[in-house]
Amino acid sequence: MSTTIFHSATTRFQTDRGWVKGKHSFNFGPYFESSRQAFGSLIIFNEDTVIPGAGFATHPHANMEIISIPLSGSIQHKDDTGKEATIKTGEIQIMSAGTGIRHSESNPSHTNELRFLQIWITPNKAGVPPRYQQIALNDQPNRFNQVVSPNPKDEGLWIQQDAWLHTGQFDKDVAATYHLKKEGNGIYIFVISGEISVKDQLLQYGDALSITETHEIRITAQKTSQVLIIEVPLK
């Protein structure tokens, strides 16, 4: 039997370090709540806002699939493999940390804030070589567009996990159905902007639904909306 849990935007734990403000959907740093430990392989879902010229100093990661999606502004990325890149709004980045990588993320603008989503997914294989990718989103309107998958030959970026990410830009009153890719996976739906309904539940900016034991899910845009769907293994 399908289980659906509504996560109101107002329940996200918020931090303010002056140069960065964070909204955390799952346990992060000092925040711990037993009901917010993870959703299967999805363990971190943060929305961060960074002031002009500031950023996260160089720090390490290992054995983690880290996905960044700018919502406004750009991310300046540098890592110890020698990779330097700018990820702009309308693009998506994956950093597969593998055996270990050190990187920094900053807001290169002197005038505009950076707002971005950062998503951590545990890999299904540890100790792989670190890897970096980024692409421009090629969102076709009023449909779900695949941006991450487990298959290097498939559309979008790929990660070391049986997980998929789709984005969608929907006009008012448009409905769309998402079909799960793998039996036993669950889906996490997040509203980036606008307002949608799912199973008679209304979701607005920052709201989310976690859904298990289902083969598909149908959304209807109540306003012009942008949606992110993350499908992940639950075990």
TrEMBL record:
Coiled coil, from the record: none
Residues annotated as domain Pirin N-terminal: 14-121
Cofactor note: Binds 1 Fe cation per subunit.
UniProt entry keywords in alphabetical sequence: Iron, Metal-binding
Domain of life of the source: Bacteria
Cofactor(s) in the UniProt record: Fe cation
The UniProt record lists the keyword Secreted: no
Pfam families found in the cross-reference section: Pirin, Pirin_C_2
The keyword Cell membrane belongs to this UniProt entry's keyword annotation: no
Domain Quercetin 2,3-dioxygenase C-terminal cupin intervals: 147-232
InterPro entries given in the database record: Pirin (IPR012093), Pirin_N_dom (IPR003829), Quercetinase_C (IPR041602), RmlC-like_jellyroll (IPR014710), RmlC_Cupin_sf (IPR011051)
Binding positions for Fe cation per the UniProt entry: 59, 61, 103, 105
GO molecular function: metal ion binding
Family designation: Belongs to the pirin family.
PANTHER family for this protein: QUERCETIN 2,3-DIOXYGENASE
Name of the protein in its database record: Pirin
